[in-house]
Amino acid sequence: MNTAILERSAGPAAETAACRAGEKKLLEISGLTVAFNKNGRRGVVLDDISLNIPRGRIVGLVGESGCGKTVLGSTIIGLLPERGAEIVSGEVNFHGGGGGEKENLLTLNYHGMKKYRGSKISMIFQEPMSSLNPVYTVGSQIDETIRNKNRDLTRAGIAARTVEILSKAGMPDPARVYSMYPHQLSGGMRQRVVIAIALANNPDLIIADEPTTALDITVSEQILFLLYNIREKFDSSIILITHDLSVVANVCDDIYVMYRGTIAECGRARDVFAAPRNPYTIGLMESLPEAGAHKKPLHVIRGSVPSIFTAIEGCKFRERCDKAAAICATPPPLKSAGETHYYRCHF
Question: How far is residue 60 from each of residues 51, 63, 195, measured CA to CA in Å?
């Protein structure tokens, strides 16, 4: 086991992992199945996904590329492709009211989702340069986000709020950045702009899709620290989509390990890092380099995530699992390893 990762998980995430009694649900996903249709073939990309996002917590979605993490985030905010994507079953219930009422986001049309996007749910996309319009200034792009939800604000009021939000997003000299274009900013500054857009209307839920991709280690740590502070200041919930377990260990309260559209293991981050049960989770942790472990070969999970169009009977990980046996040809049961720690495996 990678002890360095286990030690890091004892940081902010462990300290804020209070008891679950009395926690308020913000997002509740149950039985969600999503399929993609291409050239007459149908592949299931999310297979009977169920999870809960409590208010004020950071939840990590972790797994290799192709496991369905980004598709899950896109489904929540209603940004699945119009062609080819099919929501087969399930519910995505958002608990946005103070009286406990909920609304199934999957039943809403485009206009119905508009009241949620940007004001209640925001998304930080993976690549800031593809999220920002290169021909508009930073300020004008954030202004537009604020104006769409606050028609009563004056132009000066909107500009002042934009500068304030840039400051909250950790932007140095926000008044100067307001008039700059995306290409004039560094990668870390562009990522802060994207975060500022997501924060513009104080959303209840922020979906952060690989927010530290292509950033150097110092800037990555700054962005993660910023997300952690956002949760503290705004009481927002954050879904952090990543393939980096060290990121989850540092900032997340809860973790869901995904493999080929299913939840392989989930629970409080501290519990899962301390005693992982699913072979895929164990393989991911043992694949990470350990400080001071010189000349020690890294563990490698053989093979790669199979295509969604490849039919697999039973456990979806069995073709790559060193512990696979005949029983793995049947779907693994959901088992409990503690009050909030669950995993799927026959062993």
Answer: 12, 10, 17
Domain ranges of the chain: 3-120+205-218+237-301, 128-202
The DSSP element (H or E) to which 256 belongs, if any, is strand 254-259
Structure confidence by residue, pLDDT tens digits, 61-95: 999 999 999 999 999 999 999 889 999 999 999 99
- Pick 296 or 302 by higher pLDDT: 302
Give the dihedral sign, CA 178/180/181/184.
negative
Average pLDDT over residues 30-37: 96
Check: CB of residue 335 under 8 Å from CB of residue 277.
Answer: yes
As a whole number, mean pLDDT of residues 29-44 equals 95
The H-assigned helical ranges of the chain are 3-8, 12-15, 69-77, 110-114, 128-131, 138-149, 155-168, 174-177, 187-199, 217-234, 245-251, 269-274, 279-286
- What pTM was computed for the model? 0.88
Axis crossing angle, helix 187-199 with helix 138-149, rounded to the nearest 10: 10
Q: How far is CA 97 from the centre of its chain?
A: 23
The CATH architecture that domain 3-120+205-218+237-301 belongs to is: 3-Layer(aba) Sandwich (3.40)
Number of helices and strands in the chain (H, E): 13, 12
How much is the pLDDT for 22? 54
Average pLDDT, the chain: 88
Of residues 279, 286, 252, 246, the one with CA closest to residue 267: 252
6-28 core/surface letters (b: 16 or more CB in 10 A; e: else) = eebbeebbbebbeeeeeeeebbb
Nearest to 141 by CA among 154, 128, 152: 128
